[in-house]
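Loading example: each entry is read as two labelled lines plus one structure line.
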Amino acid sequence: MWTYLFKRILAVIPVLLVVLVVVFLMLRLTPGDPAANIAGDAATSEDIAELRIELGLEEPLPVQFAIYVRNLLKGDFGESFYYKRPVISMIADGIEPTLSLALFTIVLACLVAVPLGTLAAYKQGTWIDRLVMGFSVVGFSVPVFVIGYILIYFLSVKLDWFPVQGYQHIADGIGGWAYRLVLPSTALSVIFIALIARMTRTSVLEVLSEDYIRTARAKGLPQMKVLLKHALRNAAVPIVTIIGIAIAILISGVVVTESVFVIPGLGLLTLDAIQGRDYPTVQALIILFSVVYVVINLLIDVIYTLLDPRIRY
Amino acid sequence: MSAPVLSVSNLTIDLPRNADRQHAVHDVSFDVAPGEVVCLVGESGSGKSVIAFSVMGLLAKALTIANGTIQLENEDLTRADETRLRELRCTRMGMIFQEPMTALNPVMRCGDQIDEVLQEHTDLGAGERRQRVIDMIEQVHLPDPERMYNSYPHQLSGGQRQRIMIAMALILEPVLLIADEPTTALDVTTQAQILHLIRELQSERNTGVLFITHDFGVVAELADRVAVLKQGELVELGTTQQVLSAPTHPYTKMLIASVPVHEPPVRAAIPEDAPVVLKTEALDKQYKSFSFGGGKQVVDAARDVSIEVRKGETLGIVGESGSGKSTVARCITWLIQSSDGRIWLAGDDIAKMPKRDLHALRQKVQIVFQDPYRSLNPRRTVGQSIIEGPLNYGESKADAWAHAQELMQLVQLDPEGLDRYPHQFSGGQRQRICIARALAMRPELLVADEAVSALDVSVQAQVLQLLEQIRDRMQLAMLFITHDLRVAAQICDVVAVMSKGQVVEYGPTRDVFNNPQHEYTRALFDAAPGRDFAFARSDS
């Protein structure tokens, strides 16, 4: 197990190298000049040329790449072209809102989706099942921003139950923090509820026809125990997989939600950085997202072994 | 006689409206007395499992009890609600199932699964429960109970798992044990041990047993009384001696006559000069696997196997699961590549032949598989399946079709059936189709890999007879792979007994059966159920 973990962690290195090269080249090969962006509309071409030298953009690409990697190895992600702040501190600022939003959303999604999916499987073919699956189709089809604006319109503007937008740091009070996360998390969770509920239903349905479910019933266990203790745990592997993928998508995919609800997280930062051609920031964010993907995948694989004793590495 | 623990009277269970018959079970009545073993015997679809499940209250939703009563110690279970049934399960009536491989929850420790019964039905504390579970594991004769308690099902063998199931069903000493084909999926030696265990435990506790089986050998071994079911109707009920030795109903007579006898008949000798069709020399097959930490692991699936089949001869390869018999068949048919040794097919060494050259030779070897339900493509008509091979080898469509029609007649099916799909045929008919498909290639060697194992006895007897006729008529060499000694006794001229990848005994069938030399062969014969029982024979 430990050798396996070690090997998996080592495998992150080539992944990151590829990501690094691709991102680095993509940013520089797509049109748009950060220097022109920073200098503004009134700048002369001399100003821009000077700025380019200052930012190190006049060096040949391989040299730029070498400098970047050397700095990375020292733990230096560089400085934002725009804000003149170390990228790492900007990410540190943005990570709390994003993580909060992502975790809040995924916990909410799981709490709703897993029971819903299990219920649908248990009541297969009844109106409950059809209702859950109907909801799931709707959840897939409606974009996040539509749900977000609908929620804001009714719950904030009309009923005034929740703030329209904004974020409160957890350090300034947990109550306010959670209160402000309710709307954005709900909006964001809809599609994940749809996804996870569907997966749960399919997986539980498959398990319910297994022989050991019949054995559990023959033991005289009540239906609830059969469902929770015997069915759900055996159905868990695909469900956990989809939850893991959901978390990864969430963390790197909060851009839209954060802009709808004006949450100062990584999503907004990414949006700004891309629009402003802020190379160091974009690069750092994408490295971060890749690491998150890899770590979550690893975690899922470890959780498999806890759920199913037959899985060993 | 004391009051029965189970009394089923006039039980009728309806099938869903669009089924092929109206009742799954019709007007069935029988009793099980304390300490008595009653066997419900019948072929597939006879309704025997439906009766078992209706007693436990575990009937599929589509099936409904239309009439009759099921009395468990004078309590009518057909009127009991779900809560009451749940209380009774495992306390008054326990059940064990056919597939020990899948009947246990794979993600729970075995001990915990037994413990669950105690948790649900008793108020014992954790320590007491654990002790009782350990005691019970000991009573089903599992070694090292502590380790068994902590094992997961996949770490145990099939026989061990079935013992865990039995422990689970009997820990609260129910008055009735329902066993639904509990030994069908097990090897014959394991089967003998499990049957022995059930006998031992039920006589100690005076448990009434309702034992469901299709195997008359098992019936002879275990039952006090037998109930024979045919298409949901009880056709004969009596003591084991009565029913097996002097059956009265024609259906029972037919069933019992179909049970292959253990004694091999005298067979016509194969001419000395018959050419050798298949010969293997020191055939080896190893499986290598690599794992982190474990390093390289080598499993010898077949070792040093040397066999020979001549034209018009049937060689049986007999063995239990994991003995390597199917591995040998797959090497010979080139479904897998052998690791070492030589395989001569009609004079060509095919063991190391390049795939391209092999193509022409594939035609000469054809195989019939175990499960007729899964070995035909459900989306192609029977005719398409049969002619596909010949078309691949350049036969014209008209010729192939004409040949297919002849073959359908040969396997005693209506040639009109070529336009129909596999699901429109019964299991036995499908196996005939599989045989026709194999013969369409005009093979020299026919490999039958457990080809009759999934069939009911009456159908099995017919298919065996058919195979024999075809072999004689076409002068085929036949390699017959089976775990069933009685089947091997009937059809094989020569048998090779395999154990752990090796041939341990090899000789003419009559010699091997009448005078087994190797201790494994002897153990295998001793374990065969119902061997010493005098079955009624219509021809004797």
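Chain A has two domains: 2-73, 94-307.
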